[in-house]
Write a structure and sequence with these properties.
Helices cover 79% and strands 0% of the residues. It is mostly helical.
């Protein structure tokens, strides 16, 4: 019983596939978390900028709908 547990622990220790997955997760977090922080910090500015772009793309900025 103890030999079987020890052999499984050695196999788990030698398995690098899990370590690779953890490395990918850490790289993803290192990229995603700062981006998320920037989005949260500048949310109002980004929203205003996107709204202005949307109004310019629609092309009806400043028009009165009753005169159409």
């Amino acid at each position: 019983m103890v030999k079987s547990i020890l052999s499984k622990m050695k196999a788990l220790h030698n398995d690098e596939q899990g370590a690779t997955m953890i490395e990918y997760a850490l790289v993803f977090a290192a990229v995603a978390l700062p981006l998320l922080a920037v989005l949260i910090f500048f949310w109002k500015d980004i929203s205003k900028w996107a709204g202005e772009l949307w109004e310019n793309a629609k092309g009806n900025e400043g028009t009165d709908p009753t005169t159409l």
